[in-house]
Each structure stands twice: as structure tokens, then as C-alpha cells.
Amino acid sequence: MKKDPYGLSEILRPSIESMGFELWGIEFHPNTKNAILRIYIDKEGGISIDDCELVSRQITGLLDVHDPINMPYTLEVSSPGLDRIFFDVEQFKAYPDHLVAFQLKSVINNRRKFNAVVEGVNEEEIVVTIVDDKNEATDEVLTIPVSNIDRARLVVVF
Known about the structure:
Layout: H1 8-18, E1 22-29, E2 35-42, H2 49-66, E3 73-78, H3 89-92, E4 99-108, E5 111-121, E6 125-131, E7 137-145, E8 149-154
Parallel strand pairs: 2-3
Antiparallel strand pairs: 1-2, 4-5, 4-8, 5-6, 6-7
Helix pairs in contact: 1-2
């Protein structure tokens, strides 16, 4: 899962939480010309553009003072959205019985990319039931080591 390359969570979390938001996750995409630092925030009832602007102003000052990134970057503050990316194992606990798209670092049972329903979560592994192309559960249950998850995203089913 996505890692926090500059330890920004420690710098930003207290300020974001004191404003009434949850720091959902951090993405950093380096680039030779201008990197992108994307901060995802959440709260009960959802996030508005005004919320993103408020948090952006607050954390810009913190980032200027601590100056953890030594290259030009653009700061983006966003809601994680309905199809949110999971950044740590604790986030899966809020979505039992939900459909998640997984991408693994290494193959398990001839699978590296698949959709599955979250059945159980602990600190080291996630138990899922694989779904077919019609998003219907199969009999295949996988236990995925958290360390093997490259990316996971909630799948929105309408």
C-alpha cells in the first residue's frame, strides 16, 4: 500500500485532526519538473471544496516551516472519494463486506489483480472472497498478507 515517503503524516495529522478532519492518506508523485503531493482528507458527511481550501492553507504553512520535500511540487488536497484508495490496514476495517479492487506485489493463486469482498481484517492479513466479472461472490477465499498489497481501492457498485 502507499507509503508516506517523507514522514508527512507525523507533521500534518495533528493539525488536520484539530480542524475536525481525518487524514485519510498521502500520495507523492515525483516528477523531474514538478512533483505532486496529494493529501486526502475525510470527515463525517463528506468533504467540500471549502474544506479542501481550508486544510490546504493550514498545511501549506506547516510544509513551508518543516520543508521536508527538496524539489518543486504542487500541493493538492482532496476527498478520498467514493472509490477511495486504502492507505493502511485499519481503513479496511471500516468496509467489511465491501467490494475492493486489489493489486498485489506478487501473485497469489495465479492472481495479481482482482476484485474481492472483504471478509476479515487483522494487522497482518486480509481475508477476502473473490468475485467474478459480474461482481458475484465465488467460492474462492484468499488470505492476503498486508505486506503483499501494492494498491487497493474501494469499488463503487451502482
